Sequence to fold (146 residues):
Amino acid sequence: MAAAVIPAAVTPAAAHTGGTTTSARTLHPRDPRDPVVVVDCFSQAQMRPQEYLLACGDGNNRLVELRWNSWGSRTATATGTDMVNDCRPYCAAGRFRAYPVTVTLSDPQAWPQHPDVRRFTMIRLVYTDTVPGPHPTKDVTYKLVY
Fold:
């Protein structure tokens, strides 16, 4: 899982939005109009990213083709594809397999070093078809730790 840092004195234009930027406006602490971001493996704040790397260490799990249905102050939801390396017979020789998924970001919290910026801290993946092994369930939730 991944999440990242943005400076305390940022504008929404500094938040990545999958190739576009939002209009510039100073962020204010706990203002419900302020955007909540998701932070990636590279310490970049993003809003509505088209792709999101889940496996920061080895790149073997990535959300792609994300289409955001909502992006609010408490949750964000999208549909997309979870590309997971099957690592057979080992990861370098493995094949990436596609799994349709619904993504929900939640639990916005102040970034400890930058309390004026809120970022989502939980990600829920609901697989709408087959499930990548070794997940025993179609519904998994992870804490975003960066």
Observations:
- The chain is about 0% helix and 40% strand.
- The longest strand covers residues 96-111.
